[in-house]
């Protein structure tokens, strides 16, 4: 198959629409179920590249949760502790495979953004992973293959309309890529930059110590940024992105946005949040939204009389700003990557509030000294990678 006709493009009025190979070759994918659309394929192909590179860099199965051509989450397949299993809603699933752990992490870190995601998996989709996908609101999945039982589970989703795409893991695109904007053709060399520990050798801070786990997390952040719409920054801890700020015009806004998501991830692990008692039959999305509101500034939207009764069995106490700050002060060992240089130290000030200890960024700002000085103030270790990772 050389081309595949799509229902429409980005919007229903944008017709005709298709994907095809200009060189006459076969498309490197098979649609096993559903009818993926234009944006589905954009998410699928970007997500596949991300997880493929994560697997190559770490040796671990990888998964990502994509929304509107940026990752909402990305992770490698490290085991889940009981707290993470609970906040990712998989505590009832025992002995999950590494790939399933990777997707639970990728989906769970920012559940609000991941709602209705497109999934990419680095490895053949197994039954454990399919069973997690089965109960989440999602548009589709791309992987290099599917176990027969896993495929049947996925094909039954959305009354048989769930999008399942198999990609040829050996496919290698041409070194030059093209796209059109306003009828004008853009051409550039593909971004084939290999991201590994060699990029972290130039540590410019007084603290020179980046742990092995910190290096892995920085590599995960940089690979994630390679496929995130710019400007972008990514907070990572324990092998998973915990906060991604994408597509902001100001870098400090990226840092704040992603930092708020990282804070949200950690606040969900606080004892008073884990102990919330929800009414029977509450939907998963409603439960997630209620938690996000409860730990946010608009908490009275779920605690007001006449409102909380439809969400909680018992009215929870207010999670005060002081209590939240005390809990967040325990977060540490977080890695932060940036797709371009930090122009001011205020980015580091914000990162510190979310437990950042390790930083990787290109360097090259006229205020590099100010940024380094701010890192030194907090005892952070920062590496200059000398490479930019803009993606559009």
Automatic annotation (TrEMBL):
<dbReference type="GO" id="GO:0005829">
    <property type="term" value="C:cytosol"/>
</dbReference>
<dbReference type="InterPro" id="IPR024051">
    <property type="entry name" value="AICAR_Tfase_dup_dom_sf"/>
</dbReference>
<dbReference type="Pfam" id="PF01808">
    <property type="entry name" value="AICARFT_IMPCHas"/>
</dbReference>
<dbReference type="InterPro" id="IPR024050">
    <property type="entry name" value="AICAR_Tfase_insert_dom_sf"/>
</dbReference>
<protein>
    <submittedName>
        <fullName>5-aminoimidazole-4-carboxamide ribonucleotide transformylase</fullName>
    </submittedName>
</protein>
<dbReference type="GO" id="GO:0003937">
    <property type="term" value="F:IMP cyclohydrolase activity"/>
</dbReference>
<dbReference type="GO" id="GO:0006189">
    <property type="term" value="P:'de novo' IMP biosynthetic process"/>
</dbReference>
<dbReference type="InterPro" id="IPR002695">
    <property type="entry name" value="PurH-like"/>
</dbReference>
<dbReference type="GO" id="GO:0004643">
    <property type="term" value="F:phosphoribosylaminoimidazolecarboxamide formyltransferase activity"/>
</dbReference>
<dbReference type="InterPro" id="IPR016193">
    <property type="entry name" value="Cytidine_deaminase-like"/>
</dbReference>
């Amino acid at each position: 198959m050389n081309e595949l006709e799509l229902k429409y493009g980005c919007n229903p009025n944008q017709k005709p629409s298709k994907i095809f190979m200009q060189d006459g070759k076969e498309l490197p994918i098979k649609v096993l179920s559903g009818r993926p659309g234009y944006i589905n394929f954009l998410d699928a192909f970007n997500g596949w590249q991300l997880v493929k590179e994560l697997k190559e860099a770490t040796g671990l199965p990888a998964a990502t949760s994509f929304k509107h051509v940026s990752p909402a989450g990305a992770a490698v397949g490290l085991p889940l502790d009981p707290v993470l299993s609970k906040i990712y809603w998989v505590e009832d699933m025992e002995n999950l495979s590494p790939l399933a752990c990777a997707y639970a992490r990728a989906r769970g870190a920012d559940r609000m953004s991941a709602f209705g995601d497109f999934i990419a998996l680095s490895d053949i989709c197994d039954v454990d992973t399919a069973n997690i996908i089965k109960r989440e609101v999602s548009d589709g999945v791309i992987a290099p293959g599917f176990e027969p039982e896993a495929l049947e589970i996925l094909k039954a989703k959305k009354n048989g309309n769930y999008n399942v795409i198999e990609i040829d893991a050996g496919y290698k695109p041409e070194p030059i890529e093209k796209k059109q904007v306003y009828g004008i053709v853009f051409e550039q060399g593909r971004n084939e930059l290999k991201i590994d520990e060699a990029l972290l050798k130039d540590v410019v801070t007084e603290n020179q110590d980046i742990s092995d786990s910190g290096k892995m997390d920085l590599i995960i952040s940089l690979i994630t940024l390679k496929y995130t719409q710019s400007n972008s920054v990514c907070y990572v801890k324990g092998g998973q992105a915990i906060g991604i700020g994408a597509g902001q015009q100001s870098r400090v806004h990226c840092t704040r946005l992603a930092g708020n998501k990282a804070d949200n991830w950690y606040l969900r692990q606080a004892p008073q949040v884990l102990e919330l008692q929800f009414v029977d039959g509450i939907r998963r999305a409603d439960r997630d939204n209620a938690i996000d509101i409860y730990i946010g500034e608009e908490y009275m939207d779920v605690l007001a009389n006449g409102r909380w009764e439809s969400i909680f069995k018992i009215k929870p106490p207010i999670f005060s700003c002081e209590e939240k700050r005390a809990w967040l002060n325990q977060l540490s060992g977080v890695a932060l990557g940036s797709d371009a240089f930090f122009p001011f130290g205020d980015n580091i000030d914000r990162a510190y509030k979310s437990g950042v200890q390790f930083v990787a960024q290109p360097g090259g700002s006229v205020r590099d000294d100010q940024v380094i000085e701010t890192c030194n103030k907090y005892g952070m270790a920062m590496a200059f990678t000398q490479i930019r990772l803009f993606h559009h």
